[in-house]
Specification:
about 280 residues, alpha/beta, Rossmann fold, Pantoate--beta-alanine Ligase, Chain: A,domain 2, 2 domains, six-stranded parallel β-sheet, 10 helices, about 35% helix
């Protein structure tokens, strides 16, 4: 496995490779990330994993400075799975102030975007930069960040990028909690309670499968359920799997998406529902 920090070295090395499969990450890798890399290994001849904590997607009151940076441990976990780890500095990725951004549609300002202004603009901009540097044939993203995946798919389609985007199922702990780097911020009591978010999504799914027609009461019930247990709920929303649009009357493929804070930790999750 080769660790590369410089853009020039990355481009030179990848120019000799075929069928590149790419997994972009912010590091602090857990089993969920490694599952994405294993999928990349199955689909590509050369597997590239990027590790870059992107300042553009963090708001002024978010945890950019505190975000765990564990490059040595991450590289150990990637041995035997990845061919290249690209871990650039901020100056390497942004050699001059970034004044050009990807302009996103209104979905970027809904759901998580309503609570993290500018987050998806920063995410899409760095992903486009990474796509330009790596030039992968295929890129793997987890479905846990469902809104991110929807935006990336839209960007690839509308910019005619020759990249196959694969959405990987969410990796979960035995109690259902979606694996996340931010889970380490939970206290023992919060960690036990955190699994209730996924259980709440399953209750919404049962209501949908039972034939409930009005979505607002279902969403409100789920929100109340969480708030009664001490959660600070940002949203629980039922959307179409197709671009997270508001579902039509004849919708057959739904996704329940949610974001809520438990103590100081913000958790997101989702559950696809097919009728």
């Amino acid at each position: 496995m080769r660790l590369i920090h410089a853009v020039v070295e990355l481009r030179e090395y990848l120019s000799r490779q075929e069928r590149i499969a790419f997994v972009p990450t912010m590091g602090n890798l857990h089993e969920g990330h490694l599952q994405l890399v294993r999928m990349a290994r199955e689909r590509g001849a050369c597997v590239v994993v990027s590790i870059f904590v992107n300042p553009l997607q963090f708001g002024p009151n978010e945890d950019f400075d505190k975000y765990p940076r564990t490059l040595e441990a991450d590289c150990t976990k990637l041995q035997g799975l990845a061919d290249v780890v690209f871990a650039p500095s901020v100056d390497e990725m942004y050699p001059e102030p970034q004044t050009l951004y990807v302009e996103l549609p209104s979905i970027a300002n809904e759901l998580c975007g309503a609570f993290r202004p500018g987050h998806f603009r920063g995410m899409a901009t760095v992903v486009l930069k990474l796509f330009n540097l790596v030039q992968p044939d295929i890129a793997i993203f987890g479905k846990k960040d469902y809104q991110q995946l929807a935006i990336i798919r839209l960007m690839v389609t509308q910019f005619n990028l020759p990249i196959e985007i694969v959405g990987a199922e969410t990796s979960r702990a035995d109690d259902g909690l979606a694996l996340s780097s931010r889970n380490q911020y939970l206290s023992p009591g919060e960690r036990t309670e955190a699994a209730h978010l996924y259980r709440t999504l399953n209750e919404v799914a049962k209501d949908l499968q039972a034939g409930a027609e009005a979505l607002a009461p279902i969403e409100l019930k789920a929100r109340f359920n969480l708030e009664q247990r001490g959660w600070q709920v940002e949203y629980v929303s039922v959307r179409s799997q197709n671009g997270l649009a508001i579902p039509s009357q004849n919708e057959q493929k739904w996704v329940v998406v949610a974001a809520a804070r438990l103590g100081k930790t913000r958790l997101i999750d989702n559950l696809e529902v097919c009728l």
